[in-house]
Design a protein that fits this description.
It contains 9 helices and 8 strands. By secondary structure, the chain is an alpha/beta fold. The radius of gyration is 21 Å and the shape is globular.
Length: 278
Amino acid sequence: MPHKLLILALALALVVPAYAEDGPVTDEKAPATAELGAKAPAITMQDTDGRTFDLHDNRISRKDAEAVVRAAAVAVGAAKDAGLDTKLADLKGLKDDEGAIDPSLVTKLALACGSFAGLTATEESAEAFKTLGDLVTWVAGANDAPIVLMTFAPKCPSVKKAAEKVMSAAAKSGVRIYAVACNTKDTDEDLAKFREAYDWNIRVFWDRQQQVTDVLGGKTTPHFFVFDSGGTLRYRGALDNDPMGFMDDADRKNYLLDAVTAIRGGKEVALTETAPSG
């Protein structure tokens, strides 16, 4: 290469940032690992549907929440100009063959509305939604919810074992939860099989180069990281002390739910770190 071209190539290498093919980008000036009790480094990721999530820039306006809910509602029979007081029980697309409202279809509607905000729902939690306005309030209210990032691998036995409990805990607590898929060898097909097998409804971000996982300090899968709405890391560790699901409710310690409850109540998290169980 001619001398001048070599100098130009070196100069460009210094000024052009390199981005991971999978989408995650972390702030080069940020500390290598997120620290408990401190604001986390900048983390931006793109999920498997091409939607972007920014840990520190994720506010949802009520206008955006209303637009998402209306679009989802139209798909199940609502008029485009339907009022927010429209009852879900009146939407044809949410009824079974006998004309009764179908809880599973209401849950799917809730997931269609909340997934972009990191919200998830179960049939139990979706019972609270009676009108379109209830869904809008739920989505817009995500701004104040704690954010959970979990390291994830669709073929991991520990992730499979925890899948149902994770979705139930997320729906029950109202957190915004995102799965960071960090196994370098996992494929889109692996993820699709996992989604189908476990009815997984949580947003997934590929992190095959483990950039975000390294910033979080992820040690295994699953490993949970709970941030308050201001982006401060308040808890990291296991979901609970019962990874195999053998304990009675009275003996189970729900670490993540306890942390979320404390954060929502404006209190300090009593137990800020536990060993991940993956």
